[in-house]
Amino acid sequence: MSFLRWMPPLLALLSIGVTGCPGNSGSSEPKPAPPQEVSVSLPGVDTSSLTPRERREWAAQVSELLSPCPDTPVNIAQCVKEQRACKACLPAAQLLLKQVKDGRSKKEREDAFHMRFDANKVKTLATDGSPEMGPPDAPVTIVEWADFECPFCRLMSPLLEGLVSRFDGQVRLVFKFYPLQAHVHGEPAARAAIAAMNQGKFWEMHHLLFENQDKLEQADIERYAQRLKLDMVKFRADLVSTETKARIEKDKKQAEEVGLEGTPLIYINGREVDLQLLTNPGQDLEDWVKLDLELLGKTPRPAPPKPAGALPETAGASGAAPSGSTTPAASATPAAGATPAAGGSAPAGSAARPAASAGPAQPAQPRKP
Predict the structure, then answer these.
(1) Are 133 and 366 contacting, i.e. CB atoms less than 8 angstroms apart?
(2) How far is CA 368 from CA 1, 60, 208, 335, in A?
(3) Low-confidence winner among 24-38, 232-246, 328-342 (lowest mean pLDDT)
(4) Any idea of the CA torsion for 347, 353, 357, 362, to the nearest 10 degrees?
(5) Buried (b) or exposed (e) across 196-205, using 16+ Cβ within 10 A?
(6) Nearest CA to 192 among 155, 214, 220?
(7) How far does the chain reach from its first CA to its final CA, in angstroms?
(8) Cα–Cα distance between 27 and 22 in angstroms, integer?
(9) Distance between CA atoms of residues 76 and 186, nearest Å
(10) 151 Cα distance to chain centroid
(11) What distance in Å separates the CA atoms of residue 111 and residue 65, rounded to the nearest whole number?
(12) Res 332: pLDDT
């Protein structure tokens, strides 16, 4: 009886070709060969710190992606090996290496490569009439759209000004206004900065607004104007003038045309800088400017010597973050109501809270244009 009881399920198994429990070995089919490692060795690129997996990922990518120069239609690895004329090939291979070390995904690495080197990513930005710092004919121009109530903008400001000081005479910083809808003090602060600009005190007001980001009521703004010894009658008139409103709207329209999703929005020589693809924004931005200068055939200004006994810089660049702020670092755009990590963009139309303090430091002083 027991045999008869097991007959139906046994017949069912036989009918679908199951003849026993699978084992760990004995399969008649050959096992697929392990993927062959792509071995790439390039002069000027040290891969010794990579794991075997990371080395495979890097080698595959420099063998797949074409060189940044349209007139050099070979992959990055071949371009470097054959010492082709494209000066951006070696920096591209080094960038991909850094992205692999930082644990970035394949897509993130490709995005970082295209952001930095794709010729189709360069945009022409009108800067006439905007407040600027540094020589107007500087080989590197940084354009920033910012909101004075945005905590990320406050964190980024000293880094950008630090680049103007670090590369004295070689970098120009252009400021554009984009007060976010969710920041109720953003537009009044922008108006105050324009009114101060009309009296030659834009950067001084710019610093006061960021340094006192939690005190941007009308009485506070008037107090800052008085501290700067502005003509208060003219200042109050410019605060509400149609010309001031038109300037803000012009900057906002241009930002929306290039696809602004949050502040700060930064362009260097026409290339958008995706802050989420930067690991150490201070150092990464300094390296970006240095490479731009070298690709233009310019010699970057040497870094100033550090004073004896100086502590290591936390910002990664010569500009220090203002008191009560942290160095921006790559992070995702925060969800509504979330506390943002330092360095991400505040999405347009939303508010965000600043990150925790990293200790006091002094903001970089502007260089007069």
Answers:
(1) yes
(2) 101, 47, 17, 38
(3) 328-342
(4) 60
(5) bbbbebbbbb
(6) 220
(7) 101
(8) 9
(9) 45
(10) 15
(11) 12
(12) 32
- Dihedral angle at the C-alpha atoms of 206, 146, 290, 286, nearest 10 degrees? 80
Kindly report the number of other CB atoms within 10 A of residue 23's CB atom: 7
Q: Which pTM value belongs to this model? A: 0.77
* CB distance 117 to 88 below 8 Å: yes
Task: Specify the 3-state DSSP secondary structure of 311.
Answer: coil
For the segment 168-226, what is each residue's pLDDT rounded down to a tens digit?
999 999 999 999 999 999 999 999 999 999 999 999 999 999 999 999 999 999 999 99
* CA dist list (Å): 5 to 15, 21, 28: 17, 20, 33
Give kind and range of the element (H or E) at residue 174: strand 171-177
DSSP string covering 325-353? -------PPPPTTPPPPTTPPEETT---P
Of 104, 109, 173, residue with least CA distance to 138 = 173
Whether 361 has a pLDDT exceeding 50, the answer reads no
* Structure tokens, 311: 């502590």
CB atoms within 10 A of CB 114: 15
Share of the chain above pLDDT 90, in %: 70
Q: Which residue spans within 233-336 are E strands per DSSP? A: 262-263, 265-268, 271-272
Alpha carbon distance 80, 60 (integer Å): 15
Is-contact 191 249, C-beta < 8 A?
no
